[in-house]
Amino acid sequence: MKERSKYQLGKYSDRLLTNYHQATDEEIAKGKDWYPKVNKFITGEGIKWRLPRIRVGSVVSILSPRNKWEQNLLDAQKVLSAHDKGIHPDQIKVCTFNKNKYKAFKAARGDIEITDQSLKTYNFVNNIAHLCPESLTIDIWHLRACLGKNIKIDKSSIGRVAYQQIKSLTIKLAHSLGLEGYEFQAIVWLSTQRLTKK
């Protein structure tokens, strides 16, 4: 996805606001609470295993592809426990790709860190680990809200310029509603899934 024009960004803004205003009271409450709840989990696991939150957040993020969220958190606990006890990755099973399991162990050890070369993952980790107000997770559902159509996952890659444009736009919209960017994004994430399934 190349740089977006003012016209396109205006359309994205309208669609994001439409999906936000169609959110149910339950979706608004759940969306506001989603990142703080995950941050509490990460903080707790960090204390338990004596690890920085950013490492725990990285483990959670790395284990997330094709993994249900509740299972994702269970898998993160499994990896963190195994790492602490010196258990080899081959001795445990997780519900995502094997390559991600090995990568999660490396993240737990601090051998790798997620950088802004992977924009979506970098923003997600900073949202869940630090509730960073300058970070914003732009995933497939956020793009579907922006574009107003059910695009496929393989069409969800956007360039750095477009990512920054959509991120800035979303955070600005959130602030106009008295929300943090990650709160607005989570609410739109929930409403967009429901609306897309209609």
Commentary on this structure:
The protein has nine helices and no strands. It is mainly alpha-helical and 198 residues long. The chain has one domain (6-196). Helix 3 (53-62) packs antiparallel against helix 5 (98-109).
Give a quick precis of the structure.
The chain is mostly helical. The protein is 67% helix and 0% strand. It has one domain (6-196).
Keywords:
single chain; 198 residues; mainly alpha; 9 helices; 0% strand
Protein structure class: mainly alpha
Question: How large is the count of helical segments?
Answer: 9
Query: How far apart lie the N and C ends?
Result: 27 Å
> What is the N-to-C order of secondary-structure elements (H for helix, E for strand)?
HHHHHHHHH
Mean pLDDT score: 95
Strand percentage, roughly? under 5%
Number of domains: 1
Low-pLDDT ranges: none
Largest sheet: none
Radius of gyration using CA atoms only: 17 Å
Global outline: elongated
What percentage of residues falls in helices of 4 or more residues? 55-70%
- Total count of strands: 0
Topology:
Elements: H1 6-21, H2 25-49, H3 53-62, H4 69-85, H5 98-109, H6 119-130, H7 140-147, H8 160-176, H9 181-196
Helix pairs in contact: 1-7, 1-8, 1-9, 2-3, 2-6, 2-9, 3-5, 3-6, 4-5, 7-9, 8-9
